[in-house]
UniProtKB/TrEMBL annotation, chain A:
Listed name of the protein: Peptidoglycan glycosyltransferase MrdB
Major location (coarse): membrane
Cell location: Cell inner membrane; Membrane
Keyword Transmembrane: yes
Keywords: Cell inner membrane, Cell membrane, Cell shape, Cell wall biogenesis/degradation, Glycosyltransferase, Membrane, Peptidoglycan synthesis, Transferase, Transmembrane, Transmembrane helix
Upper lineage: Bacteria, Pseudomonadati, Pseudomonadota, Alphaproteobacteria, Sphingomonadales
InterPro entries per record: FtsW/RodA (IPR001182), RodA/MrdB (IPR011923)
Family membership: Belongs to the SEDS family. MrdB/RodA subfamily.
Keyword 4Fe-4S: no
Pathway entry: Cell wall biogenesis; peptidoglycan biosynthesis
Membrane spanning residue stretches: 17-36, 48-64, 76-93, 136-154, 160-177, 184-203, 272-295, 307-332, 338-359
Species the sequence originates in: Sphingomonas aurea
Reactions the enzyme catalyzes: [GlcNAc-(1->4)-Mur2Ac(oyl-L-Ala-gamma-D-Glu-L-Lys-D-Ala-D-Ala)](n)-di-trans,octa-cis-undecaprenyl diphosphate + beta-D-GlcNAc-(1->4)-Mur2Ac(oyl-L-Ala-gamma-D-Glu-L-Lys-D-Ala-D-Ala)-di-trans,octa-cis-undecaprenyl diphosphate = [GlcNAc-(1->4)-Mur2Ac(oyl-L-Ala-gamma-D-Glu-L-Lys-D-Ala-D-Ala)](n+1)-di-trans,octa-cis-undecaprenyl diphosphate + di-trans,octa-cis-undecaprenyl diphosphate + H(+)
Length: 369, 681
């Protein structure tokens, strides 16, 4: 019930989730302040400003009608796919791996947006699919093709982490769309069989190494395993209560590589301990559950699938990064959204939240009957 | 149906999300609670880096607690590679301030290239205060340079104790590879390289301290943490009398010789001198190639410890021992032998050192006059196999339990030994040669001193050098005490009864010395030479002169001290540099120190001053001979005579003489394998 003191549009905002993501980001900015040795530069201040800018952007996105996303889903996917091809071609021209298109004003990293776009595109596909056909082969292959093409070009870059997330996001939508469970079980078995083969024949050397080292990090404590070892040392030495703000030695003395980006969680855990870690994980879970809740309350099939798919994309971000940082997964270069330093992920996640808020707003406007 | 399926599957994903959150939290709890201690220590070992501080080495002190080897403050300069900036400028400036030779600067540069982070690299050690201060005041211009006060080994008596203590030096790369002990590559750490320093290494070393610093992953120093002090090594007390050691070393003069003095009651070694010697102080700092060359070239073998590694035919010093063996074999002291100057045995003729012969000699006279013929005859009668066991009983051919890595213990031959070694029968001539301490008999100076001490005490004394490991309560020797007394009396007669050692007569009132002199030929005297008159030692090159040997104990009436002295190629040419007077003075030092010091002060200037002065002169001469003054060439063109030309010339000529003497010496220096005799064809 809106109060007169607060304008209608403001009152309509999902304040609880906004508070959660603001808290996560603020915590991240504090971590960056500490990682820089107690300085707002070079990371904390830009990160904070970026967050405010993107948050405003997300709130603007939340005013966009659901229909726009529905209509834009496929064209956006096609444009991004073309850009991925363009990146790949440019990469060939300039030599070496390239992940972004330099448009002069901004560097656009199409693979980053593809994580969201794949969810929207699949959701749109399943909305268009007649209900009776979900259990036919025709329900599987077009979605699989959408996912496959996007993932293939991202993996070619090569960017294993993003490719993995695109596959997970697409598969989540397929799962939610009601594709028979046996296909997923079969798929999981297929992956279990294919993974060792893929590791041996498809991956780049450095990727294969990361996986092998993940299986036995102590085998190479100064090489590729160094990241995992040092990250575990940082988390393990933090104990329950942590070493205290600005007191982390692993990060301050540069033992923890990428302490402000991919391994930001370790930097935080060293200073804030188990308590800080569990609170942060809980915050993320609450945001994801809020997103799933938005999906449950959605009426259109597109909104349901999009909201749940985007929520799970956010979850994959967090889960893959944390598993990597704690030594449960190979090192795959995925940042911790809202927490790690870096504009791309920040923008993607806030865009994702913007879309979720838009769907939420739509739900509240047309209460289910 | 479809909606139902969606919400059910969405709920499933929600549950999965929460489950994953729980899993991650659990994993984190495992790392930070269960494994906390392990990761804490890993983080700590990342963070803290310890730089070792070499421990102070334990002292070697003499029996009265006077230091023989101690530590002096060493001013040194190191570089911490990580804090060094502008390498070239800093090294250039350091080179100027410390007056380093270019090759040394290059060495530092190479070390720096190989060094990692905070591990210091040594620039220079053993600096004088002036140069150390010059670096210290300019530190602001020298980032990364670290002047340190460390400790360096110091031997107050210098060369006099060189072969006793050995010296210390930086560990070798092999030693580091063996143990991987980081202390071994710490600048300033030295370990024992020879002598007692080496043998007592573990006892003397101590435990390294540590300077703990906080460093980043790249080795950058962040903060200095608490320092762990070193645990100094333990001191070792020796049985040596430092004063006597130094006195004996000086008293040997220009000889290439050695002297050992034992306490007749306990077997404690009171001095162990081998001269000339290197200066262990400069050895411990590392010596130049030139110094090394000079020491290796020297025919007085300053690099060898003659006490334990020198083997000599003991010559006539075995004669008292022979008489003990003869008495034990049943020869009466009163039995006489007629000495005519030569003895024909089979086809060989054996000569006495006295050409005309000694006439009829009994046992005591034979020892006092050192009559060879008496011993030839008696031992021909008894057989040397009855002498050899007694020789061994008195310490010849024996290896003693002492902390010296190399001990050459010589030979006491007998028929079984010869059969084993040469697969040959023992001949009468072998026995005769052995009877005057030549032929196959070889002994080191320590054994000679032990022999004297055992005769003097009548007990099987064992020499010892560590004060806490003295072999007290030595058992009595299995000889009749009257016979032992007869041996002692005859040794008394050598000095005080008109014998060959009259020059050793003690000037301390109321005390006398008992001794036996010896001469060991190192060349064969041919019949032709004997006919034309045996060459005087003074006419021979150094290496062909006779060794001079001496055993003694004092006071003769109630023996306290025993000594063995061997002077290589002494040839009995200079009276106050010969064994009897040296032996007398060393004994006098123990009984009447002032008298001994006065005697030394009188003679020392005649042979070129004390050890340090003589070594410096020798080094200067050698250097001058090696680097003929380049200035001389230039002077010819501009016609200006340099002021130091005469000095250089003098030094050069002196060095040339040394070289000439060396060149004359034959390559091989084997002890006379066939003794003093030759066989007529």
């Amino acid at each position: 019930m809106s109060s007169r003191l607060v304008p209608e549009p403001l009152a309509q905002l999902p304040w609880r989730v906004l508070f959660l993501i603001a808290a996560i980001s603020a915590f991240g900015v504090m971590m960056l302040y500490s990682a820089a040795g107690g300085s707002v530069r070079p990371w904390a201040l830009p990160q904070g400003i970026r967050f405010c800018v993107f948050l405003v952007g997300a709130i603007i996105v939340s005013r966009v009608p659901e229909d726009w996303f529905r209509k834009g889903a496929m064209p956006a996917y096609v444009v991004l796919l073309l850009m991925l091809v363009g990146v790949e071609l440019l990469g060939h021209v300039s030599g070496g791996s390239q992940r972004w298109l330099d448009l002069g004003i901004i560097r656009l990293q199409p693979s980053e947006f593809m994580k969201l776009s794949i969810v929207l595109a699949c959701a749109r596909f399943y909305e268009l699919l007649p209900a009776g056909q979900t259990r036919t082969f025709g329900a599987v292959w077009p979605a699989a093709a959408l996912i496959g093409m996007a993932a293939a070009f991202v993996m070619l870059q090569p960017d294993l982490g993003t490719g993995l997330m695109i596959c997970s996001g697409g598969a989540t939508v397929m799962f939610l769309a009601g594709i028979p469970l046996r296909l997923f079980v079969g798929g999981a078995l297929g992956v279990a069989v294919a993974a060792p083969l893929a590791v041996n024949f498809l991956l780049h050397d450095y990727q294969r190494n990361r996986i092998l080292i993940f299986l036995d990090p102590e085998s190479d404590p100064l090489g590729t395993g160094y990241h995992i070892s040092q990250s575990k040392i940082a988390i393990g030495s933090g104990g329950i209560w942590g070493k205290g703000f600005l007191n982390g030695t692993q990060s301050h003395l540069d033992y923890l590589p990428e302490g402000h980006t991919d391994f930001a969680f370790a930097t935080m855990a060293e200073e804030w301990g188990l308590v800080g870690g569990v609170l942060l994980i809980a915050a993320y879970i609450l945001v994801v559950l809020w997103g799933l809740n938005v999906a449950q309350r959605s009426t259109s099939r597109f909104a349901q699938l999009t909201a749940a798919g985007l929520s799970m994309t956010l979850f994959f971000y967090v889960a893959i990064n944390l598993a990597m940082v704690m030594g449960l997964a190979p090192v795959v270069g995925i940042p911790l959204p809202l927490f790690s330093n870096g504009g791309s992920a920040q923008m993607t996640v806030l865009l994702c939240l913007g879309i979720l808020m838009a769907i939420d707003r739509q739900n509240r406007r047309r209460p289910a009957w | 149906m479809q909606a139902y399926s969606f919400s059910r599957r969405a709920w499933l994903l929600g549950a999965g999300t929460v489950g994953m959150g729980g899993l991650l939290s659990g994993r984190m709890a495992w790392l930070s609670i269960a494994e906390n201690a392990r990761y804490n220590s890993l983080a700590e070992s990342n963070r803290v880096n310890a730089t070792l501080v070499p421990p102070r080495r334990g002292w070697l002190v003499d029996r009265h607690g006077q230091p023989i080897a101690n530590n002096r403050t060493d001013f040194r300069v190191d570089i911490i590679p990580d804090r060094l900036r502008d390498n070239d400028r800093v090294l250039r400036l350091l080179g100027q301030l410390l007056r380093l030779p270019p090759e040394e600067v290059e060495r530092v540069r190479i070390d720096l290239d190989r060094a990692a982070g905070f591990q210091p690299v040594q620039v220079a050690e053993n600096l004088d205060w002036e140069r150390f201060a010059a670096v210290s005041v300019r530190l602001p211009e020298l980032p990364g340079v670290q002047p340190t006060r460390g400790f360096a080994r110091h031997y107050p008596a210098g060369a006099a104790v060189a072969h006793l203590t050995g010296y210390v030096g930086a560990p070798t790369a092999e030693q580091f590879k063996e143990t991987r002990d980081p202390l071994l590559v710490t600048p300033g750490f030295k370990l024992g390289k020879d002598g007692l320093e080496k043998a007592l290494e573990q006892h003397l070393r101590g435990q390294a301290g540590a300077k703990r610093v906080e460093v980043t992953a790249r080795g950058k120093l962040v903060a200095e943490l608490a320092t762990r002090p070193d645990v100094p090594g333990k001191n070792a007390r020796l049985t040596i009398d430092a004063g006597l050691q130094e006195y004996a070393a000086r008293r040997l003069g220009t000889n290439s010789g050695s002297a050992v003095v034992l306490d007749c009651r306990t077997g404690e070694m009171l001095c162990m001198v081998s001269m000339p010697a290197y200066d262990p102080n400069s050895f411990s700092d590392g010596i130049s190639h030139l110094e090394w060359q000079m020491l290796s070239d020297d025919d007085h073998v300053p690099l060898m410890n003659k006490v334990t590694q020198g083997l000599y035919p003991p010559g006539s010093t075995v004669k008292p021992m022979n008489t003990l063996a003869l008495m034990a074999a049943g020869v009466a002291p009163t039995d006489r032998v007629l000495c005519t100057g030569a003895l024909r045995v089979g086809t060989g003729v054996f000569h006495c050192h006295k050409r005309g012969g000694h006439g009829a000699v009994d046992m005591k006279t034979a020892v006092a006059q050192s009559c060879d013929i008496y011993f030839y005859e008696m031992i021909r009668r008894m057989g040397y196999d009855r002498i050899a066991p007694v020789a061994r009983e008195l310490g010849l051919g024996q290896k003693f339990e002492l902390p010296f890595s190399t001990q050459r213990y010589g030979t006491v031959p007998d028929s079984a030994w010869k059969l084993r070694k040469y697969k040959d029968r023992w001949t009468v001539a072998d026995g005769l040669n052995a009877s005057i301490g030549q032929g196959y008999v070889l002994a080191n100076p320590l054994q000679l001193a032990v022999m004297a001490a055992r005769i003097a005490s009548g007990r099987a004394l064992q020499p010892s050098i560590l004060a806490d490991r003295v072999h007290r309560d030595a058992p009595a020797l299995p000889f009749d005490s009257e016979q032992l007394q007869h041996v002692r009396d005859s040794m008394w007669a050598v000095v005080n009864g008109g014998g060959t050692g009259a020059a050793a007569r003690l000037l301390v009132p109321g005390m006398s010395i008992a001794a036996k002199t010896g001469t060991a030929q190192v060349r064969r005297i041919t019949m032709a030479e004997r006919r034309g008159g045996v060459l005087k030692n003074g006419q021979l090159p150094f290496k062909l002169r006779d060794h001079a040997l001496f055993v003694c104990f004092a006071p003769a009436e109630n023996p306290r001290y025993a000594a063995g002295i061997v002077l290589e190629h002494n040839g009995h040419t200079v009276r106050n540099l010969d064994t009897p007077m040296i032996g007398r003075d060393i004994m006098t030092y123990l009984l009447d120190r002032d008298r001994a010091l006065a005697s030394l002060a009188e003679v020392e200037p005649t042979w070129g001053g004390d050890i340090t002065t003589r070594m410096a002169a020798q080094a200067a001469a050698y250097r001058a001979a090696r680097n003929p003054a380049p200035a001389a060439a230039a002077t010819k063109t501009d016609g200006v005579v340099p002021s130091d030309a005469p000095a250089v010339e003098a030094a050069t000529s002196l060095a040339n003489q040394t070289q000439a003497a060396l060149a004359e010496a034959p390559a091989a220096d084997t002890p006379a394998a066939e003794g003093t005799t030759e066989r007529t064809p």
